[in-house]
Amino acid sequence: MRATRTLPLAITVTLALTACGGSALSGGGGDGGSGDDSKVKIALLVPQSGVYAPLGKDMEAGFRLYLDQNDNKLGGKDVELTVVDEGAGPEDGVPAGTKLAQDESVDAVVGIVNSAVALGLTDSFTEAKKPLIITNAGANDITGKSSSPYVWRTSFANGEVGEAIGGHVAKEVGDGKVYLVGPDYAAGDEFLAGFKKSFVAAGGQIAGTQMTPFGKTTNFQPYLQKARNAKPKAVFAFYAGAEAVTFVKQYDQLGLREDIPFYATGFLTEGGALTAQGKSAEGIFTSLHYSSELDNPTNATFVKEYTAANEVPPTVYSMQTYDAGAVLDKALTKGTGGDQIVEGLKATGEVDSPRGPWSFSDKQGPDQTYYLRKVEKKGDAWTNVIEDELTKPSS
Ligand code: PHB
């Protein structure tokens, strides 16, 4: 059933993929369930502008693959899919998401890259009793103190991704110090704090921390110079999308790659970012819960079919949003009302995912394995080779 096509994903589009050709669907997130239970309307809220636009494209392609593989049905219901731009940050993403929370024709919302956008939307979804499946944004509070019965996450919590690799880096650097760097917003802070937690607990010392203006920094050289001056034994960073490309290239151009081992969260070297970085990313070690290199049968099929449809291999962003398709497929068998979908989500059980099997924790985020990955060239392509499993984060 899979259609192999490339869509003009960079523009905001609203596509009706159902046989009903985009007619208004009754429904809504409220208690009562939808009027027409044979159809469901899903809105995908992903960035189509700003430094995270490439991530939004991967997410949309992941969700579309799930629909294509499943006859455009979730829970046996025909899907009408609307794609809405999350924009460059909360100033765009929060109003766009609030509108979707309040739109009675939308049964559930999927997506969101940016932690600040997710944090700004949980109350609206809770008030509207509408399910929100976050397929990237890792803000810790979403599955912590701001948790809501209506907000679920198929991705990760920021702190976990940093925490998973801290103990390993402490062992590698011995009595040397590590310099931390990342963008100055919720996610940057939380990735670095998660790293610091396990790194310091394992005896590691911090050489310094630098937060860079988010979404505006194109010249990282002053910050990299500060990092070099601190004489660290290694650097640990979080960057993603366009910022990841610029940071890694400038790290290499300044000659730091030869001198200072580079560790990061895996977003730094995912997909199109890694292709653009090329050799400048060689040897970077990262932590993540996915690589297209993972060796399991579900991932083999996923990588094959995604690559056939999109001409590039999937990323963590594609996988997390593909999994939202799988999760909703089960949940929507209970009905399309907000509370019915939530009941369905509670009964998800084990998800047979390209990342390996996982299930929702009682905090409504994935209980999953994190891996140590290393950038290597395989044939003509740069890739994230799996080196090891990392220690399970405690948070
Ligand atoms: C976030 O803002 O939570 C975020 C953004 C990009 C990533 C990961 C996390 O790659």
UniProtKB/TrEMBL annotation:
<dbReference type="InterPro" id="IPR028081">
    <property type="entry name" value="Leu-bd"/>
</dbReference>
<protein>
    <submittedName>
        <fullName>Amino acid ABC transporter substrate-binding protein</fullName>
    </submittedName>
</protein>
<dbReference type="Pfam" id="PF13458">
    <property type="entry name" value="Peripla_BP_6"/>
</dbReference>
<feature type="signal peptide">
    <location>
        <begin position="1"/>
        <end position="24"/>
    </location>
</feature>
<comment type="similarity">
    <text>Belongs to the leucine-binding protein family.</text>
</comment>
<keyword id="KW-0732">Signal</keyword>
<dbReference type="InterPro" id="IPR051010">
    <property type="entry name" value="BCAA_transport"/>
</dbReference>
<dbReference type="InterPro" id="IPR028082">
    <property type="entry name" value="Peripla_BP_I"/>
</dbReference>
<feature type="domain" description="Leucine-binding protein">
    <location>
        <begin position="39"/>
        <end position="379"/>
    </location>
</feature>
